[in-house]
Known about the structure:
This protein is 51% helix and 12% strand. The protein has helices at residues 10-15, 38-50, 53-58, 62-76, 96-101, 106-118, 122-131; strands spanning 17-19, 29-32, 78-82, 85-86, 89-90. It has a 3-stranded antiparallel sheet. The protein has a two-stranded antiparallel ribbon with strand order 4-5. The chain is globular. The model has no long low-confidence stretch (mean pLDDT 88).
Amino acid sequence: MQLSELKQNSRAVEEGAWIDDIPGCGDLRVKTRGLNNADYRAAMERKLKAVPRKERRAGLGPQTERRLQVECLVETCLQEWQNLQGANGPIPIAEAKALLLDPDYEPLFQGCVYAAAVVGDEAAADQEIQRGNS
């Protein structure tokens, strides 16, 4: 394995980058910070501490886990998106939390998680730079 394959773009992780070609999401583009940004980690830690101890010890249920992931993703990662259309035109990023919590929009949730996960990946950053989207 090459050392360069293990390098991340920490600036993109903290400041955000546009991600295209999100699997299963057509032409959706998402500007997001990386899942490993400092604010995401702090928010997740804070939210986990707020979960009742009994529930934490028994293991988070899938609904609680999803809610925490979505809240942290929306609060600390997602900055903007393009090409997401509803019946009345473009859907604003302000509607992200409601959409990502809705199990009927699982592909959108997975796409946003994917985008946040690849931000900071040097290969993804190189791809964006080549497209002129950095």
